[in-house]
Amino acid sequence: MIDMVAISIFFQSKVVNETPVQNFVDEHMLMREYGISMDGQVYWEDGKAVHQRLHHKFESIPSHNATLAFKIVNGTDFRNYPYLKIVGNPAKLLQGHNVYGSDNIEMCVMAVVDCFALAYPELSEVLDWFSAVIDYFDITYTAHCENDQQARQVMDILKNVKNRQTKPSYCPYEETTYWNKGSECRILKAYLKSIEVQKQIQEATKRLARLHPNQQKTSHLARQIQEMTRPEVLKFADGAVRFEARVFAGWMKEKGVHCSLALITDPELQKKDPDLIPRLWRLAFKDVFASFEGATMNAYDTSEVHDNLRAAYFRTTNKGNVSYSKADRLFVLYRAIVNDGFEQTKARFPRNTWSRILKDLTDAGLSLAQLQNLNGLTSNVVPLIQMITVNFDQQHPAGYVEPKPMRQQILQHTALALAS
Length: 420
Prior knowledge:
The chain is an alpha+beta fold. It folds into 2 domains: 2-292 and 392-419, no CATH class; 302-387, no CATH class. It has helices at residues 27-34, 90-95, 105-119, 121-124, 148-158, 193-209, 213-218, 220-228, 231-237, 249-254, 261-264, 267-272, 276-284, 286-290, 302-312, 325-340, 342-346, 351-363, 368-372, 381-387, 406-419; strands spanning 2-10, 17-18, 23-24, 39-45, 48-55, 59-62, 67-73, 83-88, 133-144, 168-169, 176-179, 186-192, 240-248, 315-316, 322-323. A hairpin with a 4-residue loop joins strand 6 (59-62) and strand 7 (67-73).
């Protein structure tokens, strides 16, 4: 599913002041003409208010089901022309929660665009939508465990997984793991969905309680709480380990994906390449899931490991005897990893030698993730690794129906509100 979309749209030249130093949109005009709130310093001079250091923070737009945010950037960062950035969660906008959702690119991206355009029609008219580009997608799919307790054990395993260019990043939360945090190509994340849902319900309930009773009836928060507390939603979140990839425009272009808003929302793209979003997710998480491959034995059963190594590595000497010297050397190394840990054992060897050792151990039936999680303690790391499987046919509850397009929902909601 598409869990977040960020879009950048340049302003039309008719509202841009172009100078040799900087291209910019007049902040006072934005406040006066479009009601945009700006942060900065204000002082009085000759009876007039003077604004300094004006800038626009991300501003929230309430919608029927959720909110999205936008920000005006006045050509002061890596883009030297003023533009507007919109960030929104299509799943929440379309259905009030993001426990599961759609990966239809056109519908998800246009949900964010339509919410903004209908909220700020006059501002939208001075944006150059033909120049709009996708900055990043958050793409999320779910692996299911039997319960949250088992899902927590899976998270303990994931925190130690690294492979090739995918390396774990520090995260203070036990229920969350990051890889490549801070990267401008792709950032990976795994977390327990049920914990996040409960936090979202609690936060929405507190915020709703602070509103006036008349506001509570029409608030998007009430709609969110209603959707998040549905039995099928809570059941789907239980035991769910979410794997989320934030993929940026540069990385997507390397994979042959055009990030132009016009091209990415072309209905023909969805028809020609309906698996584009799951394919991008697979590429992003390729290294992580490759580390699970090959787990065919219990890494904590020393007898089983020794027997498997001997079955994989033996030779017959000139005298007709069977030699297990390589298998026994690998078993000594395996024991060192068990006793001292993966990283400590790795530090004793040159890179090329360690790569050969890992290949020999994984070829015999130990996965990289197993080896990285060896710590001398009894563990059920083998069955847990084997069950970390993202089934693309089970990403929704039975009977799931995709929501209606955002513009249609908003217009229907507006018509009902006027009728009542």
